[in-house]
Write a structure and sequence with these properties.
CATH architecture of the largest domain: 2-Layer Sandwich
Structural class: alpha+beta
CATH topology of the largest domain: Alpha-Beta Plaits
Strand order of the largest sheet: 2-3-1-4-5
Oligomer: single chain
Distance between the termini: 73 Å
Number of strands: 5
Number of domains: 2
CATH class of the largest domain: Alpha Beta
Largest sheet: 5 strands, mixed
Order of helices and strands: HHHHEHHEEHEHEH
Length: about 270
């Protein structure tokens, strides 16, 4: 209650109260001047005094109490509105945390799978699984702070390299997933190669200032029509990733159905 009292605009209450009391006295005197003569009486100094005193004694405490309660109600309403704004902001933050990976700020695994399931089958698309090569050694040799920096750097790199409408997620410790609505196999390959080349060019350094080389392997699949079971899409891209990693660092491998693309595009 003390905190509330400090915020009450006493000067405004006092001013309003004075105006109400003066209006009440004026109304009382005017009424007496009008009614008393009609009743055959005379309005003298004592009558004037009684009008002033009675009007003051009734209107002053009543108006003061009413204005204080009104001001407290205003303060309470303002406090409720402020709490509602804070609650809305907290809910937005919770919703964001529920759908985002805390380190990379990309979509998390659950939200990626949810949004992937909402993509129209007929639109087709390309799904990429991106895996940082030998990420454990990056942590072991340079420390986890540099490892975290590598995750953020790769996340930013993918975000900048891909179209704005792409779904990009960190789905594991050093694994990322990307989905783009596209059925163009050649463009699918070029995007995969661009992601790998951009990551390889990242200027990451450790605490001693030494360069920390990064590379990724990417497995992907491009389909003109998405399967009803999106896990099938992910499984095919995952098998392509295993083939890419088996070939060495910084490699890109399409799904089996897209294998001819590697023969028509020079890397």
């Amino acid at each position: 209650m003390q905190g509330t009292a400090r915020t009450i605009a006493w000067h405004r209450i006092t001013l309003h109260c004075v105006l109400i009391v003066l209006a009440s006295i004026g109304g009382s005197v005017l009424a007496a001047l009008t009614i008393v003569p009609l009743l055959g009486g005379s309005f003298d100094g004592n009558g004037l005094l009684m009008c002033v005193v009675c009007a003051f004694l009734v209107s002053a405490p009543a108006s003061f109490h009413h204005l204080v309660q009104k001001e407290r109600l205003r303060i309470a309403h303002d406090a409720v509105h402020a709490l509602n704004r804070q609650l809305a902001a907290a809910n937005r933050e919770l919703a964001e945390r529920a759908t985002r990976d805390g380190l990379s700020q990309l979509l998390n695994r659950t939200e990626f799978h949810r949004q992937l399931g909402l993509q129209p089958e007929a639109a087709g698309g390309a799904l990429y699984i991106v895996d940082i090569d030998d990420f454990k050694s990056v942590n072991d040799r340079n420390g986890h702070l540099v490892g975290d920096g590598a995750i953020r750097a790769v996340a930013n790199c993918l975000t900048e390299a891909l179209p704005r409408e792409a779904l990009i997620a960190r789905t594991g410790g050093d694994e990322f997933c990307v989905f783009i609505q596209s059925a163009d196999m050649l463009e699918g390959w070029r995007l995969a190669r661009k992601m790998a080349d951009d990551v390889a060019a990242l200027p990451l350094r450790n605490g001693a200032g030494a360069a920390v080389p990064l590379s990724v392997c990417i497995g992907y699949v491009v389909l003109p029509t998405l399967p009803a079971d999106r896990e099938e899409l992910i499984d095919r891209a995952d098998r392509a990733l295993y083939r890419a990693k088996a070939a060495g660092r910084g490699r890109v491998a399409p799904g089996r159905e897209d294998a001819t693309v590697t023969q028509t595009v020079s890397v």
